[in-house]
Specification:
2 helices, 124 residues, four-stranded antiparallel β-sheet
Length: 124
């Protein structure tokens, strides 16, 4: 095999390795960017749900106490670590209103939907 053929093979191999490394690095960066974007979108959605609920005159303390009472009945002894309002559904009238909370208890996450009938909230 001639020297120029060996040099050509080495150059092609180096370029292929550089291409592969760049491709893998770019894929990892895209995944990290997508994860951060999803987190920012979720945070904005939660802030919007909280703002909308406040704007509609909903009492956040009443909503949260309903979630806590329901969880105490469904899963006695579990402590809530985090409680986030993640969705507000405000249709015309008050009997069609609902709010969705993300309830975090240790490693467990669950969504709990509350529905309003008149001035009373109850979990679904």
């Amino acid at each position: 095999m001639a020297a120029w053929e060996i040099i050509l093979i080495v150059v092609v191999a180096v370029v292929a390795l550089l291409f592969l490394g760049g491709y893998l690095g770019n894929a990892r960066a895209r995944t990290a960017r997508a994860r951060r974007l999803d987190e920012h979108i979720a945070k904005a959605d939660r802030a919007l749900a909280t703002a909308r609920a406040g704007d509609r005159g909903w009492d956040r303390d009443v909503l949260e106490s309903t979630v806590r009472e329901t969880l105490a009945v469904r899963r006695p002894g579990q402590a809530i670590e985090r409680l986030e309002l993640i969705q507000v559904i405000d249709l015309p009238g008050t009997d069609s209103d609902s709010a969705v909370f993300l309830v975090v208890c240790g490693e467990r996450e669950e969504r709990m939907e509350l529905v309003r009938t008149g001035d009373r909230w109850a979990a679904v």
